[in-house]
Design brief:
Blueprint lengths: L1 H13 L4 E5 L3 E2 L5 E2 L2 E8 L9 E5 L25 E2 L4 E2 L4 E5 L31 H14 L5 E7 L1 H12 L4 E7 L7 H16 L16 H15 L2 H7 L19 H14 L4 H13 L20 E7 L7 H13 L3 E7 L13 H18 L5
Parallel strand pairs: 5-8, 5-9, 6-7, 9-10, 10-11, 11-12
Antiparallel strand pairs: 1-4, 2-3, 4-8
């Protein structure tokens, strides 16, 4: 089983089931180091119009990838945001040319720790320089250049994807007409860094992590990565949702076992989440991508004043949060809105009432769909794009 997982991980890392932009120009990272050559795996949906004005970039969250609206080549499941992106969806692929790329540091074809290091012929492992959200966005900008698109009609994303949306608006304001950051913040909180550190420690404590060389040594840190996923998954949910879905219900039994098997449904659910995650995600990528989120602090990058990140922006913004999201609570969204107001930006804000927690942005939440559709339709009208 380990050999099969290793082979699958290496296959997607170096020969993904998607388009790949191979860029010779070095990507200079925030750390001062450079990556070259750079591979960026991506998917597109819809058609680019004649004047190249209808491109929408979708930015994925922590454990997402480029397969936003197509069947996933590893899991066989629908795209991770097929509720939002597709024909007739709020991000309508009958109207827009939608692009989604795997982030730098990921594991599905964009240069990451599981990718082959051309200097050694082996996976990068921990030899890959640490990357940041700004580095991810800089790589996406190189992809957009590669595709010959001067500017984007919209950049959309939730959670870590929302961080990328904010970074796009700050770093490339002239290339973003509309920005929709969802369930995110302008910096990662101490609590969120703490949760990520628990996950990273679980991975590195697994004997099969092998100091990051597990792919070279034919091992997989399954237990550590599964525990990391289990801990993180709890933060994506809300207590009311957990109570409604699982409560204290027992799993396939009528009484407690007085042992340490998965007596409760919630235990079984988390174990399943951990086990399935190991089959599609690289452990070292988890270290890199969580660290990128931890380092994100947009205000710190602009003299400690968040409004300066958006000074003079012409981008239109819609910021969305959820009432039950305790991972990225509404207060963080309000800070973004206040900064945008201080920068005299065009911004709307909505807090959506739901008990689904942080993961609400990925789920069937009609209010989010209506908000997204309304914002995009209004922006498209101003942009001069055809109505649906």
């Amino acid at each position: 089983m380990e050999r099969t997982t290793n082979e699958a991980a290496r296959s997607e890392a170096d020969a993904p089931h998607s388009l790949v932009a191979r860029i010779a120009r070095p990507l200079t990272l925030e750390s001062g180091k450079a990556l070259a050559p750079l591979n960026i795996a991506y998917q597109t949906y819809g058609e680019l119009n004649a004047d190249r004005s209808n491109a929408v970039l979708v930015c994925h969250a922590l454990t997402g990838d480029q397969h936003v609206a197509n069947v996933h080549p590893v899991t066989g499941k629908p795209g991770w945001w097929s509720t939002m992106v597709g024909p007739g969806r709020p991000v309508d692929t009958d109207r827009f040319f939608v692009i989604c790329s795997n982030v730098v540091g990921g594991c599905l074809g964009t240069t990451g720790p599981a990718s082959t290091n051309p200097a050694t012929g082996e996976p990068y492992g921990l030899d890959l320089p640490v990357v940041t959200i700004r580095d991810m966005v800089a790589a996406q900008a190189m992809l957009i250049d590669h595709l010959g698109i001067p500017d984007l009609f919209a950049v959309v994303g939730g959670s870590m994807g929302g961080m990328q949306v904010l970074e796009w608006a700050a770093s490339y304001p002239d290339r973003v007409f509309a920005a929709l950051p969802i369930a995110t913040a302008a910096k990662h909180s101490a609590q969120n860094i703490a949760f990520h550190e628990v996950g990273r420690q679980a991975i590195t404590a697994d004997p099969d992590w092998r100091n990051g060389r597990y792919l070279m040594e034919g091992a997989v840190p399954r237990k550590g990565l599964a525990v990391a996923r289990m801990a993180a998954h709890i933060t994506y949910l809300s207590e009311p949702a957990l109570q409604t879905k699982f409560g204290r219900n027992l799993q396939d039994r009528d009484a407690r076992t007085f042992g340490f098997d998965a007596d409760f449904q919630i235990e079984s659910y988390l174990r399943h989440q951990g086990a399935s995650f190991v089959e599609r995600f690289d452990a070292n990528s988890y270290l890199y991508v969580t660290r990128a989120m931890d380092y994100f602090d947009l205000a710190a990058d602009h003299g400690g004043v968040l409004a300066k990140a958006f000074q003079g922006t012409k981008t239109r913004f819609c910021v969305a949060s959820f009432t039950s999201d305790w991972l990225f609570p509404t207060e963080g969204a309000r800070q973004i809105v206040h900064a945008l107001n201080a920068a005299a930006a065009n911004v709307s804000f909505v807090e959506i009432a739901t008990d689904k927690g942080h993961d609400a942005f990925l789920l069937d939440v009609p209010e989010l769909f209506a908000t997204t559709r309304g914002f995009i339709d209004a922006a498209a009208k101003v942009r001069g794009l055809p109505s649906p």
